[in-house]
Fold each of these.
Amino acid sequence: MSTQGSPDVKPDVSRAALGVVRAAVIAAVACGAVLVGGLVLGGSVTEKVIPGLGDAGVLTRWGLPASRAAMDLLSALTVGALIAAAALLPIEAGRPGEGAKEGGRGPGRLSKDAITYLRAASWLAAVWAAAAAATLVFTVADVLGQPVGQVVTGSELSSYVGSLPQGTALMIVVLLAVVVALLARTTTTPAAAFGLLALAGIALLPAPLTGHSASAANHTVATTGVALHVAAVAPWVGGLAVVGVHALLRRDRLPVMADRFSRMALWCYIVVGASGLVNVIARLPDPVELVETDYGRLALGKIALFGALGWFGRWHRNRTLPALEAGRPWSFARLASVEAAVMGAAVGLAVALARTAPPAPAEPESAVKALLGYEMPPQVTPARLATLWQLDLLFVVLVVALGGLYLAAVVRLRRRGDSWPLGRTAAWLIGLATMVAVTQTGVAKYAPILFSVHMAQHMVLNMLTPIFLVLGAPVTLALRALKPARVRGDRGPREWLTAMLHSRYVAVIAHPAVATFIFVVSTFALYFTPLFEAAMRNHLGHMAMSLHFLAAGSLFFWVLLGVDPAPKKLPYPGRLLLLFVTMPFHAFFGIALMNLSQALARGWYASVDPPWGTTILKDQHTGGGIAWGFGEVPTFIVLIVLAFQWYFHDQRQARRMDRKADRAAAPGGRAEDDELAAYNARLAKLAERDKPE
Ligand code: HEM
């Protein structure tokens, strides 16, 4: 009995391949059938007469959801094939001397199967790009109410792609999928496969983030919710498909692959369920609508399928995975094929749901609510900034994930009997608390309306939160808490983290000059170009802006204060110098804002202008004052922290020197060791140089 998971009898390849085709066809038919049923039930394929808008025709009414379903399925399969290559299949140890230093083994290599999945991903991504292009054309026809033929031959397509978020988003999906398709043809290293996976992950987001959730009630929650949803659905659906194919073809390393997939699938299941419910609540604030509306009934169908998929997962964990581990993969392969069909049906239902209009809100939505996703709040006061809560789903997920992972790592160290400084845990949690304070409270509610409040939010995310996060030393904690990979040469999370820390990318991005450049220049580049208004106008832009502030600040303060290992550590005088060189730029930025004669992002602020506010320009001048004044706070904190770090660093140095001297002075030992001698010689030379002539 071989341990590699495949039974000792190799399957008849053509019969196994037939099994794969059969499972794929059943899943596609299930998706198609449920999609058709859902579209008819939801009424989204019946001709609608909208005053002033023509009819796009039957081809578009059916073509759009069909191409969308194809796009969703192919994106999931592409992500699944890339995950198999980069993370599910063990990486093989490099051969001795292969690009290795000092006779060690070279960096890990992708296995033959992993390369095969990369090539498969290349084809899948090419078809994904085609499906996205078709969805783009059908979406233009649908929005303009014109038959597809007219759109394809006319100039509408190009103007639509540039002017409307959905058009731009789908165009980005097409371009990114083409890039993935091209690069997956030649990728051979684990790091590059991981990079491709990240690229495909990004390509999943533009479409749902600009879908009709962008116009739903609570649209900020709805869009983040559907993006999280799709980001969890794709690796789950695609991963199952690839592990199922691997099982049907009885390929090697199946138990490791299935085990890793199963652990990932559990987290995907939790995120899909939670984000799915958030999506439904954002669109159907009244639970009764779940049974009384078409949209609600389709969502109920999805919840039922979700429950069934939970049962499959449980059965795998209790039955088929142990059987697979024991060398009997057949039950796993069979159940995975049925499960793939249920997933196909869920995707079909999802697209029908996305094509079905949620029930219209009881009250007609005001222009401000359509822009903000909530009504204009009352006059801003410090009390309201602190007490009026505003859910930002992205940052809720971020805070819960960062907090949960950090505490889980600390608990693991403690259980192992290792200690972890309380100060670091406290710093990390304070960092997360500052993040909550400006992304979930009244600050988040007023930030899109008032530039001054936006600036306070920006300053905290960019210059305060990062200080505490880097003092939490998350990289050191991760390296200490993560277990090494079980298989020699393979890459688990710990090895990936180490590889990333030693990568050329991190060496460049974490170089003090580069980190400072990003920290300073990106602020000016954002606010004094049209980029700022574009970012304020759509949710995707807004999310990217907040994440950029946090990332650019974390990078800069990692270089300045970080206790974690970093490619290039500046000596303490260098860090002080970097601080004093950088901080004036923030003051310049604040002063530039205080002297604005023309308002920034005037179009946006005019469209959300509060009846109780001051003028837009005056408010932006206040924002400038906040940027200028706020800069002092982090400077002060950094100075104190640097002073302490420097002091303790010198203490440690002195203790080390003393220990060495003691060792050298020990009975029978040499009086002074070479280093101490060199050090004294340098002091003597200095004294000599300074002696008055
Ligand atoms: C608790 C169960 C679930 C709920 C409540 C739920 C709910 C939703 C909602 C409300 C949307 C947004 C539709 C729109 O744009 O209006 C959505 C989108 C989506 N869901 Fe789910 N879902 C669930 C489970 C699943 C499962 C199990 C899958 C697949 C395996 C899935 C796949 C998708 C996909 C692919 C989309 C994006 C559709 C598109 O815009 O193209 N969902 N879901």
Amino acid sequence: MIRAQHRHLTTTLPFSDEQDFEDARRGFIAALEPGVVRDGTGRVVWDIDSYGFLSGAAPDTVNPSLWRQSQLGALQGLHEVVPGLYQVRGFDLSEITFIEGEAGVVVIDPLISVETAAAALALYREHRGNRPVTGVLYTHSHVDHFGGVRGVVDQADVDSGAVPIIAPAGFTGHAVSENVFAGTAMSRRAGYMYGASLERGPRGQVGAGLGLTTSTGTVTLIPPTIEITATGQELVVDGVRMEFQLAPGSEAPAEMHIHLPHLRALCMAENATHVLHNILTIRGALVRDPHAWSRYISEAIELFGDRTDVVFASHHWPTWGHDRAIHFLELQRDLYAYLHDQTVRMMNLGMTGSEIAEAIQMPPALENAWHARGYYGSVSHNVKAVYQRYMGWYDGNPANLWKHPPTEAGRRYVDFMGGADAVVAKAEDSFAAGDYRWVAEVLSHVVFAEPDHAAGRALLADTFEQLGYGAENGTWRCAYLSAAHELRHGSFGTPAAANAPDLYAQLTPEQWFDVIAIRVDGPRAWDLHLTIDIDLTDVSAVHRLTLNNGVLSHTARQLPTTPDLTLRLPMQLLLGLLTGHVEIDGLEAAGAELDGDRSVLAALLGVLDRTDPDFEIVTP
Ligand SMILES: [Zn+2]
């Protein structure tokens, strides 16, 4: 079944078009040999050699279109884009770019980890001379575009003003806040989306579409020293003139494009790459705005198009030649606009997200453009995201307004369908007929009704595996194969949690209090009423925390009433207390002052819930 589907793709997609391979190899200077990056303790944080299996024709267990995309992603090393402009690709999920200036080199987007960014800079220097880094640009607020910054620049050089750090307006707030509230849930689900717990290989993880996978080294952040606040703004850094276009609320909440007039080169950040990107990632996120996204690409063509001979981004390889670059941008623009406009059109015909996702047909020009295919986002889940953006989770049919949750629904479905054994027997027929989507749906009911039903679990795992082998989308494949893995071997938890001290250090006291508030166990705190003034001695600010009705509210306004307790301490100590690293009894010894009823502090800490990074996904 999956084999037939793959064969069909190989005859309909333009596999004979080798232009992408030419582009991904163009300007090659040197590769990292061996393709392994370790941290200071010797732990491997990046291993592109583990993708060495990606050669030759696609095996039956990998969608041939995804296989091709992964082969392109595995072409690593230092490349010249044009003289003076270089990229190191295949050192992380994202790519790092080097612009040579008068005295040194300006870096765009220093990857996720200090270790991979440092390795990329070292490879660059080996071949282009030991140039000092004279500036850093973050194109947007996602971690794969700033996390490795301390691998290319020292704090002291930033503090002295020698090295400017340049980012779009709102960068820091979004960089630290995007994953704060829902971080635990997103990180657990990211384990499914990127397949971090899967073996790499033809039956496992073969890439995530946007890149092969994420590095697992040290994540850092140096806040920007220069913010770009307007489209058309220009800067000269180390003799390199740059012109900026702001694109907030596109692929990231804070994002910008960079034009380099002297090189006739345009950096599109992550708004025009060699994938259909996500309107909504399957790990979960706020829905993005594809309408604005396509408008920014239009604007980039208008602003810079006639001065551009090469377009590049912080993922994948560049596109050279004025006409090809513009054609690429036009198709990317139309891709997001088409998904938006057609979804809304059909929405106004009364169709729901899942119906539109099945009905929508992409124009042939987009269908046959490799860079517009759904390796990271998919037409299917992006259409549902557009629907969600306008209409929300509810499809308007009251049958779906108040449905039973999975376990309760599962019990009833299985009961109506004659019991778990009968469902599994029927599902075997559907499996044999290749209707994997249906098998996944009915067997999920069995597993939620009877989690220990061995035959049901096994067949569901086999089903997810087939869906994974068939998926053109890298993240769908990872999700399906991760689900199969957990059904067979139990939960792998959260393989890569986001916990970088540099990021936490940028959170404001208000953000910390919000984080504490979402940990209050409501019912346990219903009857608790308390007020605490937190006097943060290092930032000279007093915040009143009030717990009432299970809600922890906070204000920096001076209130006339006396709190139950006043706590005077520096921010760092407060964080120690809130994260469980400092006990209440140890506060005074650590330099805090407590004035009033100290029992309220224990009462507050006593109703804070733990988060669960190991929660179940495919089982109850
Ligand atoms: Zn990225």
Amino acid sequence: MRVLRVLLLAPMILMMLPARGQVAVKSPTMLSPAVTRYVKVPAAEWIVLKNVRVIDGTGAPAIEKTDVVIHNGKIDSIGVAEKIAPGATVLELNGHTVFPGLVGMHDHMYNIARPNLNAAGSSEPPLMVPQLAFSSTHLYLGAGVTMRTTGSVEPYTDLNMRDAIDKGEIPGPHMDVTGPYLEGSKSVFIQMHKLRDAEDARATVDFWAKQGVTSFKAYMFITRAELKAAIDEAHRHGMKITGHLCAVTYPEAAELGIDNLEHGFFVNTQLDPGKQPDECPNTVGSPTLQKMTAGGEEAKAMIDLLVSHHVAVTSTLPVMEPDDATQVHIQPRVLETMAVPTREAYLYTRNLELMRAAANPEMAAQRAAMFKNGMALEREFVAAGGLLMAGPDPTGDGGVLPGYGDQREVELLVEAGFTPLEAIKIATLNGATFEGLANSIGSIAPGKNADLVVVGGDPSRKISDIENTEIVFKDGVGFDSQKLLESAKGRYGQY
Ligand SMILES: [Zn+2]
């Protein structure tokens, strides 16, 4: 019956296909054995999640002990199901909570590797960013993340991964593939193209838009002229562009028409001493963050400017979290997921950070105060009507890993002062809204994709319960979260 319906609908579906450049959530029709091995709840015409608590992602209060009915991969209803279709798959989920799949707006498929890094913290050039096509996809899906790659070092690999995932050939998240970093001439990364000028920026965007990427990311050394050309060209292709900036300040980027800024308010250089136009100061925004205290005139003016220009901001608190020994947040699961060389490098770096903090408590206190101020500016931005989104920037640095980092981001948003329900909205519906996907993902509502995370416990009361992932539904197929996460153990940093 289903096949017949599909045939009949073909022309209409064709009409609904996303315009080129538009981010899409494609559901595979067939799953290969490489994917089905991780399936816990196979696709079915009817699936009923019974007696479950629902956090719908809109910020609305949680609904206790109700039913979520899934019909052919889409959410059919939320509410106690009077009648259950014969043959339906029924999951008794008393004591569990379901919330929308996380929409990771600053996620990567690579990690950062420093050749021969030693315990004193020195390493040999070149700085590398190896692609991790296996462990990253398994960690994202295992943690229930749909993601934007936010700057690619192997764009063809990212594109092929997305397409293989969409065809059901490999397990993984829905992906918004961001083009290669649009980086200026002074880049420290040997795998990035160094833009020559504005025309090169325009041509690079045009080329990759035609290759199939669906968003763009500008990086630290890009100049105003190059950024302007990239923004105009991305918009000409109907795509959005974000930036982890430095040479260009936040107000300049907003005036140029950027759509999104990465790393909260941690990398704005407008008040950095000696800041020259189109130059990235080596203070990379810390003095500005120290001076621009939440509630102050300068902060208010900058935030009002971003809001009036509809610039969204991505909160990436996990990668900014100081290595404050009092806040030991290294989780055993994170260490166990790292490959041995990656774990060694992380522990060397962390040990040095702790030694520095112990040797210079004022500096440690200053960093902790800046982190708190960064958190307060994100709250102020939301209070002013700004669209805040979430993504951990997982590259291994700071112990931030795919999936686990996305959960840590939500926990830190709560530490920043948002309620658990607000934090989950920031990490789900807000990202989906920015991506133009709010009709299909980002919240739990009839007609939307059954992209859902089932956890033990109640994140609306204890946010760290979001870590207790058991089943991750993607397009209505229930994946075994722990099996996916287990499969990446000891592999992060290897492949
Ligand atoms: Zn990043």
